[in-house]
Amino acid sequence: MLLDWLRKLGYISDERKCGFAKSASLNLETLPLPTTDDPHALHLRIQELEKQLENAHLKVEGIEIMIEIVEKELKIPFRKKSVTK
Fold it and tell me: What distance in Å separates the CA atoms of residue 31 and residue 52, rounded to the nearest whole number?
C-alpha cells in the first residue's frame, strides 16, 4: 500500500524492484552550485534541496512505518533495546 502511494506520487519508479529508487535518495549534485551573483539560481538550488529533504523525510517515515508493521503483525522484535548500566 505504501509503495503504491509512493509510485502514484512519483517518488519511486513503477518497476517492481526491492528497495527505494534513486529519486527517493539524496543527490546533492542534481544542480551545480550557483554563483552568489545569480539570485534566481540560488532560489532554484534551495527549492531542489528542499524537495530532496522532503523526499528523505518521506523515506524515513515509510521505513519507520514498515518497522512498526513488522513488529506488530509478525511479532518480530526489530529495534534494538537500549541497555543502560
Answer: 12
- d(CA 70, CA 22) in angstroms, rounded, equals 24
Instruction: Return the domain boundaries, the chain.
Output: 2-25+35-73
Q: Which residue has the cell 546533492?
A: 28
Residue range 29-79, pLDDT digits in tens: 555 565 667 888 889 989 999 999 999 999 999 999 988 988 889 888 877
Locate 52 and state its grid cell.
530532496
d(CA 37, CA 48): 18
Q: What is the pTM of this model?
A: 0.52
What are the E-state strand segments in the chain?
A: none
d(CA 6, CA 62) in angstroms, rounded, equals 9
